[in-house]
Specification:
This protein has 422 residues and is α/β, with parallel strands linked by helices. It is built from 15 helices and 13 strands.
């Protein structure tokens, strides 16, 4: 029946509010006042105070002798209540109420309004949350410096003249200055050799004045990206791309976590989205984004990464469209990171689900002829179904930068501790 999931979700609480009682007795069902009050009192007492007394309810009125429930064995309390509730509704000749019905009770009243405004998803403002995090980091650095330590230092390496990469690095350096991290950008032409780049990274690894090393990806085709990422010292790998750091993440150990997945985790937690035991779907399996997000969603929250204990399904380009839809419709949380505009539509989203859009693609706006940034989600439609949703831009992007700053501070403190340990 309709109210059973709500009852069971609250039955561990010591006391139910009048709102809870009203929902128990009347949600989506028209029943007479006397029957409603009787159901409320009986079910709440049975489920909250003494679950074993549920069986005793069936011996009471208003259910007639002919409609008493024959209890098979074994059967759960939930099954008993579910069936019994059905009998009560049948005996009272109750009807399903339309969603616009106003249900009045002496102790509470609820109006179910069926309009788009009431169902609009809560917007997760990544820009605002990132700003709050940067303020927290700024205070941490001030405290760190007051203890006699130097400011953390971040060095970025940018190869080539790609405008997008240049913008990303510029934004990261501005954020560093904002929180009090000293930073420097080293620019190289695309004709730099792999060995020359490796030699420079080796020098930075051994420079005690450097706490964090950032290699802006992608690198030119003649350079092995994996080799470059692995060449960055694990202690200074603020992007979290070194295979040893990734391995530690997979083992749920303390490490520098890739910034975008860490930003997604922080968004989910700060938005108050429940993850424990929930179904989550990650769309996209990239080694730097999709896979680490899945790890953080499913791993044990008691361990070093403070993960989220969800049940996770990973979908990718070879997941059949009908299966992608099926998985997404079962998900309480959808995180998509594919770079395919409009991939996630309203018909794929369960009502009330949290939708985190990591995708970012530059497209032409047909109404203006100018370029704009869009995500993987059909935002305007999905926001009418979802419970929480991130915008693009202004969602995950600012969080990625904030987490880079956080990782740089962590690296600086870890390195200082190592240098001061005999």
């Amino acid at each position: 029946m309709y109210v059973i999931p709500m009852i069971t979700s609250r039955c561990s609480r010591k006391m139910l509010t009048s709102t809870d009682r009203c929902l128990v007795s009347s949600k989506q069902i028209k029943i007479k006042q006397a029957v409603a009050d009787w159901i409320s009192i009986s079910l709440v007492r049975a489920l909250v105070k003494n679950p074993r007394s549920v069986k005793a309810i069936i011996e009471q009125k208003p259910v007639t002798e002919s409609k008493r429930l024959s209890i098979p064995s074994p059967i759960s309390n939930l099954e008993i209540v579910n069936y019994y509730f059905a009998l009560l509704c049948e005996s009272s000749k109750n009807e399903i109420a339309p969603s616009t019905t106003t249900i009045k009770r002496s102790y509470h009243s609820v109006r179910k309004v069926n309009n788009s405004a009431s169902r609009m998803a809560k917007l997760i403002d990544g820009k605002q949350i990132a700003s709050e995090i940067r303020e927290e980091l700024r205070k941490k650095i001030e405290t760190w410096k007051a203890q006699g330590n130097r400011a953390p230092q971040l060095t970025a390496i940018l190869i080539g003249e790609d405008p997008a990469s240049a913008t990303y690095v510029s934004n990261k350096m501005k954020a560093a200055a904002d929180v009090g991290i000293e930073s420097k950008t080293e620019r190289y032409n695309t004709d730099i050799t792999e060995q020359e780049l490796l030699d420079r990274i080796y020098q930075l690894n051994n420079d005690d004045a450097v706490d964090g090393i950032l290699i802006q990806l992608p690198v030119p085709g003649h350079i092995d990206e994996r080799k470059i990422c692995n060449s960055v010292s694990c202690d200074k790998d603020v992007d979290g791309f070194n295979e040893r750091n990734i391995g530690r993440l997979c083992l749920d150990m303390n490490t520098l976590i890739p910034c975008t997945p860490l930003g997604v985790q922080e968004l989910i937690k700060r938005a108050g989205i429940e993850t424990f035991g929930k179904n989550a779907v990650v769309v996209g399996r990239s080694k730097n984004v999709g896979m680490p997000i899945a790890m953080l969603l499913h791993a044990d929250g008691r361990n070093d990464t403070c993960a989220m204990d969800a049940t996770v399904t990973i979908c990718h380009r070879f997941t059949p469209p009908e299966e992608l839809t099926r998985f997404c419709r079962m998900a309480d949380i959808i995180v998509t990171a594919t770079g395919v505009p409009g991939l996630i539509t309203a018909g794929m989203v369960k009502e009330g689900a949290a939708v985190i859009d990591v995708g970012i693609t530059r497209v032409i706006d047909p109404s203006t002829g100018k370029t704009k940034l869009v995500g993987d989600v059909d935002f305007d439609e999905v926001r009418n179904i979802a419970g929480h949703i991130t915008p693009v831009p202004g969602g995950v992007g600012p969080m990625t930068v904030a987490m880079l700053m956080k990782n740089t501070i962590i690296a600086a403190k870890n390195l200082a501790r190592k240098r001061n340990t005999p």
